[in-house]
Design brief:
- This protein is of the alpha/beta class and 274 residues long.
- The protein contains 8 helices and 9 strands.
- Strands 2-1-9-8-5-6-7 form a 7-stranded mixed β-sheet. Strands 3-4 form a two-stranded antiparallel sheet.
- Helix 3 packs across helix 4 and helix 7 runs antiparallel to helix 8.
- The longest helix is centred in the C-terminal third of the chain and has 23 residues.
- The chain starts with 12 loop residues before the first strand and ends with a helix.
Length: 274
């Protein structure tokens, strides 16, 4: 399978994409330097600490603290995403998947034997299935590929549980094309073999990894030669001062309050903003 080209995407979203032979960073995860209502900076770190929002915490505690956040927000996660982004996150995800064009497209010249090779896709931190369902829909409806499959991996069982519930209302509930895996992206388990993945996606998840370099090393390990790494994440809008000011005010002023009113959890959404 030849490497796919990657489109450019305007702020506040960009992609990280790599072929197995080369890694290129086209954007970084969100790091807000300051905000009208939350002016503090992320604290300096040493080798034994990492960031948790704007706090500096021992690296050994981040996984459990992130897990606690997502266990708390799992049942209200989709509702909160709609409220936080005014529904725009759906458009971002649609564009993300459409640009990747997942699935094995039909041959340009019809032949009696369809020699297309199905894709194996891995969606990391994909507990609710938002990206996975889109990948399968595009493969099936756009490329006519009914064999490519997605493995949804998440470290949090509560998020995976929500995804499985959502899958019941799709065509993939009992399909072998959809698998669920509780796993740490920094150390993927044996079911994910070396050079076995055609497309690795992570949407709004890389910011929560304790050791990003380990997750990227694992992505490199499991991707096939020519496979694609695609990351959807927030970015800066510093190029547009007015939009940047409104973006920060909404993020730090409104989102934690909405979290408290809708989900009864201000602290978790404060972390997600930071």
């Amino acid at each position: 399978m030849p490497p796919r080209t990657t489109p450019s995407v305007s702020s506040p979203l960009k992609y990280l994409v790599s072929a197995r032979q080369q890694y290129r960073c086209l954007s970084c995860s969100l790091r807000l330097s300051q905000s009208p209502s939350q002016p503090q900076q992320p604290q300096p770190q040493d080798a034994s600490t990492t960031h948790f929002g704007f706090q500096s915490i021992p690296s050994t505690t981040k996984t459990s603290r992130v897990s606690s956040v997502f266990s708390s927000v799992a049942t209200s996660y989709d509702t909160m995403n709609d409220l936080m982004s005014l529904g725009i996150h759906r458009l971002w995800k649609d564009h993300f998947v459409r640009s990747l064009n997942p699935g094995s497209p039909p041959p340009s010249t019809p032949s009696p034997s369809d020699s297309r090779k199905p894709w194996t896709m891995l969606d990391i931190a994909g507990g609710t299935g938002d990206i996975a369902f889109r990948l399968l829909d595009h493969s099936t409806l756009i490329n006519g590929d009914r064999e490519s499959k997605v493995i949804v991996s998440d470290i949090n069982p509560s998020m995976l549980s929500e995804g499985k519930k959502r899958a019941l209302s799709t065509a993939y509930a009992d399909s072998p094309r959809l698998e669920w895996l509780e796993a740490d992206a920094e150390s993927l388990p044996p079911p994910i073999q070396d050079a076995s993945i055609d497309l690795y996606t992570v949407a709004f998840g890389i910011r929560n990894f304790t050791h990003k370099h380990l997750a990227l090393r694992e992505a490199y390990r499991v991707l096939k030669p020519g496979g694609v790494f695609a990351c959807l994440e927030f970015s800066h809008v510093d190029r547009y001062p007015l939009l940047n000011a409104a973006y920060k005010r909404w993020s730090f002023g409104a989102i934690p309050i909405i979290g408290e009113l809708v989900a009864g959890d201000r602290g978790s959404y404060q972390y997600l903003v930071e």
